[in-house]
Amino acid sequence: MSDPTPALHAAIWPRRLPRELEVPATTLWFNLEVSARRYPEKAATLFFGRRMSYAELFARSEALAGWLRAQGVGRGDRVLLFLQNCPQYLVAFYAILRADAVVVPVNPMNRADEFSHYITDSGARAAIAGADLAAVVAEANALVPEGARLKTLLVTRYAEALPEAGLDADMAPPPAMLQWLSADPPLPDGATRWADALGAGLRPGPHEAGPDDLALLPYTSGTTGQPKGCMHSHRTLMANAVGAGLWGQASAESVSLGVVPMFHITGMMYGVLASVYGGSTVVVMPRWDRELAGRLISRHGVTHWTCIPTMIIDLFASPNYRSFDLRSLRSLSGGGAAMPQAVAERLRDEFGITFAEGYGLTETAAPSHANPPERAKLQCLGIPIFGVDSRIMDTTTMQLLPPGEVGEIVTRGPMVFNGYWGHPQATADAFVEIEGRRYFRTGDLGRVDEEGYFFITDRLKRMINASGFKVWPSEVELMLFKCPAVQEACVIAARDAYRGETVKAVVVLRAEARGKTAPEDIVAWAREHMAAYKVPRLVEFADTLPKSGSGKVMWRLLQEREG
């Protein structure tokens, strides 16, 4: 069966956009060099009101690259980047690339045992960390065999990027966040302070990396085993760095809110890579806080916000959200979880904003699919973006499935990674050959509608089999979001002596429903709104749902607790 979706996409593809991109055959470092020459005085970042210009970003990155080279970091060497969102993240990121080395971003929530895996698996020579995380690096390094340990640790305080003259009241972080930002814990033995490295006055040699050199090694958990590094070259990252602005109608005049963690591929793509390519400004938030986000959007006239739907839900839960001035927002997009229809409709009705969902993985450098802003569908992945060919395949036979049928999403395109670092078998297993072409197996189940829009059903491994009925947890979750008493929900499988498995919902109630709602009330509501086999037989209330550093609900953790 031939794939009918390309013909469908021709009818809905935005007329303003090319079907494929001519991706620059240069490095990501060159993007910063160009923007620094074009917009030297323009703000690359705003951090609680303090601006870092493109000229400053360029100069600091050059100086730090010189220091890294002096420490022995060379072409192809891996450098761990262990920071929360801050202007220093961009400086460190581009300094590593300027030194012809490879950025290895690490989730700041990792503890020493976990961090030691990144040291040994990547073979990193150096690490750049926040002051609050330096002790974790030192502890992890001590756990590693001596010959595999890090040789260099550079430490920065977040306070080094705060305004020198103090904070304006409307941009001040909550007291606990300010205390954390201002902390100055003792440095581990042998560590170097950020200011000392920049002040050393060192310059790197010529930039020798090319577009096919390894640039980024982000780690992904997958479904089994230890996290694996995804090999991305300058070229694979460049595709989305260029395409992101075109798709979202961004320009050098755009102002974005950088709150999705930069260690995560989405936050990195939109807050570190695409912004620098386009010469736009990023308002950097180190951690999510709904009140602060509302004030920063209002103060800086944020035009573009790529986020996690849970952030929108939380913003709406603020008693002050009606006082926030969101009129500057032109583009609101995101992924990682489906936007509940009830929340999306509220966005549209109250603020006139259509939330444009997208889809991508660490392996695809963030988006491989996106909704055209001009014609977005709710709870939909969108359509394959520039140069991407995606299909829905039978999970057993790898035969193409027609529109409407559920199968695995496979994809190929210029942003697809080159494989897993040091794991040739996992790399081989991750790809399938179709009609002589290599497609990445996403491990996600989905379908295509009659217009060629893609919809996700669930992870291949996340399916509940209740008496032979297949239940997709994400579908049940989206329904539960419509329940007036439910603020958030995560659906998992529970053991059932009769059905084998049954549906369980872990629910966070809305404030007004707490103390007034029983689990039986949620079950009763569900019985009225969904098929009987999908109805949660068990409902557990929780104060919060566990979330990853990127804001995704950690359903696997809840599933493991359930057994």
Overall 3D form: globular
Helix- and strand-based class? alpha/beta
Given as residue ranges, the uncertain stretches (5+ residues, pLDDT < 50) are: none
Calculate Rg over CA atoms. 23 Å
Can you characterise this structure?
The chain has 563 residues and is an alpha/beta fold. Helices cover 31% and strands 24% of the residues. The strands form eight sheets. A five-stranded parallel beta sheet has the order 4-3-5-6-7, sandwiched between helices. A five-stranded mixed beta sheet has the order 14-15-16-17-18, with helices on both faces. Helix 3 (54-70) packs across helix 4 (87-98) and helix 9 packs across helix 10 (265-278). The model has no long low-confidence stretch (mean pLDDT 92).
Outline the fold blueprint.
Elements: H1 5-12, H2 28-38, E1 43-47, E2 50-53, H3 54-70, E3 78-82, H4 87-98, E4 102-105, H5 112-122, E5 126-130, H6 134-143, E6 152-156, H7 175-182, E7 192-193, H8 194-198, E8 214-216, E9 219-220, E10 228-229, E11 232-233, H9 234-247, E12 255-258, H10 265-278, E13 281-284, H11 290-300, E14 304-307, H12 309-316, E15 331-334, H13 341-351, E16 355-361, E17 366-370, E18 383-384, E19 389-393, E20 407-412, H14 424-430, E21 431-434, E22 437-448, E23 454-459, E24 464-466, E25 469-471, H15 473-480, E26 486-496, E27 500-509, H16 519-529, E28 538-541, H17 555-562
Parallel strand pairs: 1-13, 3-4, 3-5, 5-6, 6-7, 12-13, 14-15, 15-16, 27-28
Antiparallel strand pairs: 1-2, 8-11, 9-10, 16-17, 17-18, 19-20, 20-22, 21-22, 22-23, 24-25, 26-27
Helix pairs in contact: 2-3, 2-10, 3-4, 5-6, 9-10
